[in-house]
Design goal:
The chain is of the alpha+beta class. The protein has one domain. It has one helix and three strands. Strands 1-2-3 form a three-stranded antiparallel β-sheet. Strand 2 and strand 3 form a beta hairpin.
C-alpha cells in the first residue's frame, strides 16, 4: 500500500470493528438496525442510526465523495 509523499501514513490505513444489531421498541411495534464502528487502534467508538450515515462517515474518512457502493 503506497501513500503520497505529503500524506500522513496513519491516514492511509484504518481498522475498525463493525457492530450491527437490531433495536426493537419495548412494545415490539418498531425496529431499526443500528451500527457502530470501534477504532482498533485507540478504542474510540462512533455510533450510527442508519446505514446512510455510516456510509457518509466512511466516505468522509477516505475522502471518497462518490455515490453509494455497487
Amino acid at each position: 500500500m503506497k501513500s503520497s509523499p505529503n500524506s500522513n501514513p496513519n491516514d492511509a490505513y484504518h481498522a475498525y470493528l463493525l457492530k450491527i444489531w437490531l433495536e426493537i421498541d419495548d412494545d415490539m411495534s418498531k425496529s431499526a438496525w443500528r451500527f457502530s464502528l470501534e477504532d482498533a487502534h485507540n478504542g474510540t467508538r462512533q455510533g450510527f442510526t442508519n446505514l446512510d450515515s455510516l456510509w457518509v462517515y466512511l466516505q468522509n474518512l477516505t475522502g471518497n465523495q462518490r455515490g453509494s457502493p455497487g
